[in-house]
Design the sequence.
């Protein structure tokens, strides 16, 4: 009786050990698969609902959207960053209005954080703007793609990393989830962060910026299985190679580098929040679906989002992040700032 019990105990212990070690710390698949179209859809219908009044910078609606983001982080038990006193990085109106002589009220970036287990001082930033253009002529501009899509993508990526952490596979480096404000008025939130960084710029290993990943443009009318990759190779050949390799391995999207051409007249590289990181020498990759008929229009609604594409592109951002925070050596910066 006793012997059998000991044997049984031995079997259970070894088998649970075997099970645990089967999950390779280098393999993000299990956690990547927690990022689903359904979860993103549920969140986006809230972030891009009329209740948020188009999320104009500093407005009541934007603050409501911000509260929703914070509630989600609290639910997932993801705290605000070490060194901060809340989920907010307040930005005074004077800063927001200095450049374009506008009349915006105070606003705030929202941040959350998962600390790295081995190199906590090295930080990856994942950014997306949560402001949009508000209400015009009585119509609410809900900005589901711009940038509700990036906003909910960050929430889902954070949840996936938190699940990995709970399962004993937390990131080795730290991750700052940064929802920036004032993008539509001139990339203000990211500019404020880069000038007032919570973690030293020198310790910031990269920025993954997500701005519009839920729709398709006319160039890809036949398939939504693509994403534009912009900026990855400008400062770091590692960042480019990691983006390509992780996509080949896990998401198999058609990576379109058309807008990465420095001579492209759209200059998207300079037009979203990652640019404020790149300016300081931080390697940045921008994921983007291109523009469409509802860009900055009242038709940018959650009903028009292609949730399968949103999920895949979010998964790509997640697996790039996974590699960046878990690789033994920090990625190199081997090209000059231009
Ligand atoms: Zn945008």
Sequence:
């Amino acid at each position: 009786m006793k012997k059998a019990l000991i044997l049984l105990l031995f079997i259970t212990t070894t088998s649970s050990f075997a099970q645990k070690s089967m999950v390779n710390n280098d393999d993000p698949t299990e956690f990547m698969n927690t990022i689903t179209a359904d979860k993103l859809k549920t969140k986006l219908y809230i972030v891009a609902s009329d209740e948020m009044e188009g999320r104009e910078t500093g407005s009541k609606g934007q603050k409501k959207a911000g509260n929703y983001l914070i509630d989600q982080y609290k639910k997932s038990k993801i705290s605000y960053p070490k060194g901060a006193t809340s989920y907010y990085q307040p930005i005074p109106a004077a800063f927001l209005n200095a450049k374009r002589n506008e009349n915006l009220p105070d606003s705030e970036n929202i941040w959350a954080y998962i600390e790295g287990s081995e190199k906590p001082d090295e930080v990856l930033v994942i950014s997306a703007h949560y402001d949009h253009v508000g209400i015009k002529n009585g119509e609410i501009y809900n900005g589901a793609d711009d940038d509700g899509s990036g906003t909910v993508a960050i929430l889902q990526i954070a949840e996936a990393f938190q699940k990995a952490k709970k399962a004993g596979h937390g990131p080795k480096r730290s991750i700052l989830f940064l929802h920036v404000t004032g993008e539509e008025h001139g990339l203000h939130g990211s500019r404020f962060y880069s000038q007032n960084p919570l973690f030293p710029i020198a310790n910031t290993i990269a920025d993954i910026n997500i701005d519009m990943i839920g729709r398709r443009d006319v160039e890809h009318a036949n398939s939504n299985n693509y994403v534009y990759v912009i900026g990855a190779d400008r400062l770091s050949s590692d960042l480019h190679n990691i983006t390509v390799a992780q996509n080949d391995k896990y998401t198999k999207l058609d990576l379109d580098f058309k807008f990465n051409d420095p001579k492209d007249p759209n200059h998207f590289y300079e037009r979203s929040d990652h640019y404020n990181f790149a300016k300081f020498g931080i390697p940045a990759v921008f994921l983007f679906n291109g523009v469409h008929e509802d860009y900055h229009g009242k038709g940018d609604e959650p009903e028009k989002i292609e949730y399968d594409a949103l999920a895949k592109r979010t998964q790509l951002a997640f697996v790039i992040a996974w590699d960046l925070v878990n690789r033994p050596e920090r990625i190199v910066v081997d090209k000059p700032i231009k």
